[in-house]
User: Fold these one by one.
Assistant:
Number 1:
Amino acid sequence: MVRLFFLLSGEHETLPTAELKAILEAEDYNYKILEELDQVLRIEADLKCAEAVKNRAALTRTCALELFTCEAKQSEAVKALHSTNISEFLEKGESFAVRIKHVKSHAREVDGMALERKLGEIILNKAENVKVNLKNPQKTFTGILTDNKLVFGLKLADVPSKSFMERYPKKKPFFHPSAMPPKLARCMVNLAKPKVGDLVLDPFCGTGSILIEAALIGCRVLGMDIQRRMVKGSQKNLAYFGIEQEGLIVADAKNPPTRTVDAVVADPPYGRSATTFRRTTKQIIEDCLKAVHDILSDRKRICMAAPKTIEISQIGKALGYRHMESHFVYVHRSLTREIAIFERV
């Protein structure tokens, strides 16, 4: 077990931390939370978990091995770095850079560039035969200024966001205005905690956003939609990204033609662009939750989105599920999504 810290996305208040915890649990990593700061989570865990986070996360930006945490003052950072055996992390001849980032308006009195130079000088003097390379360093030391603290360490991985942009709904061959953005779709998949090789069902697959994100982290995927054109569109989008699926079925979510799945991730139809076949969104959600109860094993999860006004958490509890948590995502003035996670008991 080592100390790690993760720079989280500022796109939502609660989802990044929840997603990170879910990834660690899905990948069977034991961890201990040391501290939750603004956009930074400090934990004790196996070093290898950073690779799992890099491969799965949508709302984490950077994973780093923590060297020290101190008060957000240059003098305190200098003192802490002098007490660190930096030679453990740099080999002879290696190049390095130091990067300091402010979260929001935290510690604005600290000059980040001046701190980078000062800490870089100390590392240059303490480590043997190393050099600074600001453009393409072999090692990067990163410091995050947040909540009046500096969390400093050796960067292990960045989580690339470019690939998510390449999968944005309008860039796919088949587009529909109700399509979920890829980052939120990936986050919802992670909150359901599937493992590599698990079968993930989306009973309202639409354009395939959730299926694509589940497949890209190594899950097997099965999609359903009551509309044939959506199933065909989903098939086109999955093929575009080279994804093979277990099946894409024209079917009603209240009667899924499958015996067992490992996780359900769903964004039921709602809003002006959605087709509900004269049923209310609440009825659709109730029917779906009833139907999938019998194809999920105990302790397996459902992650489902719905308008906040539906109160999906209450629906799930009334149907016998354990409500694990909910997160609220503002979309526009007339829509806030509730992302609810349930466990079958």
Number 2:
Amino acid sequence: MSKRDYYETLGVAKGAGKDEIKKAYRKQAMKYHPDRNPDNAEAEAKFKEASEAAEVLLDDNKKQRYDQFGHAGVDGQGGGGFGGGGFSGDFGDIGDIFGDIFGDMMGGGGRRRGSRRTGRPGNDLQMVLNVSFEEAAFGAKKKVSVTKLVKCGTCHGSGGKNGAKPTSCDMCHGSGEIRRQQGFFTVASTCPKCSGSGQMISDPCGTCHGDGRTKKKVELEVTVPAGIDEGQRLKLSNEGDSGAQGGPDGDLYIVIEIEEHEIFERDGFNVHYTVPISFSQAALGAEVEVPTLEGKVMVEVPAGTQSGKKMRLRGKGVQKLGGYGQGDAILTIHVETPTKLTSDQKEVFEQLATMESAAKCNPMSKGFFDKVKDLFQ
């Protein structure tokens, strides 16, 4: 049976460059790899076909002969994929693709051949920090305590007794990887003995037992920026667990939790609150003292103010994150109904009720009852 055109097999145009060919082959190899399709002869055949096409098209000499003479130009010269004598041409390109494929299939990031970890990275840590409403609004310095892994004071992080240095792992011989034959490939996996570091502690430190780290409670100062909001996180780089055997330190994440305020409620950078006034203040108008985050201010309440009216005090809200201005304070006016009236007060309100009925000076009530009257006529 005649072979398919190599370009058609990979789904690329004849003039495709190496990057496009690599991308197309990687897609085919991931889809039809035998480990992903066990006991599937059709998938195995397609995998071999794609591998053969990639071997030829990624080798400049073979590609030139194939473009000129077709399959006759490369038959018998390695174009047999993994089962036909291996890759005699541009093995570096195809080898890089294999590394990526194996990394993805094994849950890793495609670690390249010959690479080796210098140590285990430290874990990232997270903690909650409670701040007051005002501290979140204007910023603050806060002390926090965190228990984390730090470099062992006895061995100074080496993990060896009396500071002895690690030796090369006798299982992977310092490479950090174990290679084994699997199907058509040689598969690399992390060495289980040294966890990929390529090093071993022959005589471990008695304090940290070879890890190079011990638990310690550390006090840190955190700068809470003005304007930070509930649930936002601060990152303290390299303040997480220390790395092992020379690995990088982790980070510490501080999650902000803001205490409730007895007056103010926050909405972004604005603050909302309710200001109570009396009947007389609402009817006649008044100058009322109201609180803000920065202190008390006087506000002019116009005559005839209705309950529920909102007033905005510009620039009296929360400092905007980054320092560019402030939000607003938004007041909701609540006209209070008096309770437990004295006899004199009751007499005054009775007189007021009589006058209100005669004068019809309540516009909202008049409009409402006019609508009710029209509705039931």
